[in-house]
Amino acid sequence: MTDVIALAKTSLSHTLAALGALALGAAAVAPAQAQTVSGSDSFNLPEDVSFILAPLDPNVRRATARVNGSIITGTDVDHRVALILAAQDANVQVSPEEISRLRLQVLRNLIDETLQVQEAEAQEMAVTDEEVNQSYARYAAEARGMSVSEMDAYLASIGSSAGSIKRQIKGELAWDRLLRRNVAPFVNVSEGEVNELYQRLQASRGTTEYRIGEIFLAATPANAEQVRANANQIIEQLRAGGSFVAYARQYSQASSAVQGGDLGWLQVAQLQQPTLEAAVQQMQPGQLVGPLEIPGGYSILLMIDQRTLGMADPRDAVLSLKQISLEFAPGTPGPEIERRAAEFMSTVQAMRGCGDADAAAAAIGASTVDNDAIQVRQLPEAFQNLLLQLNVGQVTPPFGELPSDIRVLMLCGRDDPEQTGGPSVQDIMASLEEDRINRRAQRYRRDLRRDAVIEYN
């Protein structure tokens, strides 16, 4: 596996967002009386819809590498690997070979972080422990709703530690300072370049805009074969159910790694690579392709979504929904389930809109959950077109997990999206600047590695 080129133009908020996937999931909403909750998972909707008619001892410290005299231990690697594995889908089995590759990748990341911290200190821009602790506490409180002690306990429970996150935060902050002083001031993007690209984008109004996820692996002629093999292994893991976001954060060598590989909304012309442009135009949402050979390495692409520029996407509509559900106690006889399910559907069909639903549901022992601000595209795909065809007050076909429960969604309101004009001049300027900062940052980090004294055990 090639060396990882970490994030180019980063910020603490991005760093903490990238760590967010490592913490505990939100508590489930208990079905009881009428509730109002927020968030795309407030209904706990199934993705696959069926409609109905031992941690290692943290005290063991063994040197794995010395970077200009600073020690990276096996425990440091173990704790970072535990963070990454905690972000994986619990149903996905990670092979011993994949864990071995992951440990090597983590070691390279730790070496880069160490070099970044050392360089910042050498240039009298050291990140203090107080700054790191403040950032860690803010992340625990704002992003996870935990106190520092609760966050510490959670990390220990998965075989990691607060020190592992703090080490990454310190490396990110140090690198951000170095780039802001030594790289960003020397990057120039002319108004002519920006205006030319803006005019090209405006001329393509009515064409498709794509939201792409990318994992980029740098390669040279000497290691191209090995890098391609590594890319194929990553693709196999992703197709087996691995998290694209987690793999992008760990393996991608592009600046988008901190966003889980998400490049955001863009048009084909913005990719500026014929191979990528041709592939993207043939992809459908959810499709994974690669490895695609491009100058400098290989790309793995995921089509996250697509839309038509300058035209409102119906899936951007914001819905007000009410979920009505009826649960059956374990051991309820089949005939009783059928009777109550029929009563449930009869009651739902007789409801006179959302204003009548709570009282009618309570009368038969059903419960309701409200969400007044959920975007259509946040819902499982099976529900999207179905809900877009409903009028206010209408319900979906029943779904659920018989003999456990039966549910419907009722449409209570809909706010249609506004037209979009595509990226602004400022957006294009920022994108071009970030790309150039990233290129110079890669060279900067290569220089740090080249001049470093690194001893491996």
From TrEMBL:
Record-level Gene Ontology MF annotations: peptidyl-prolyl cis-trans isomerase activity
InterPro entries per UniProt: OMP_Chaperone_SurA, PPIase_dom_sf, PPIase_PpiC, SurA_N, Trigger_fact/SurA_dom_sf
Pfam families: Rotamase, SurA_N
Every PpiC domain range: 207-305
Taxonomic superkingdom: Bacteria
Signal sequence annotation: 1-34
Entry keywords, A to Z: Chaperone, Isomerase, Periplasm, Rotamase, Signal
Name listed for the protein in its UniProt record: Parvulin-like PPIase
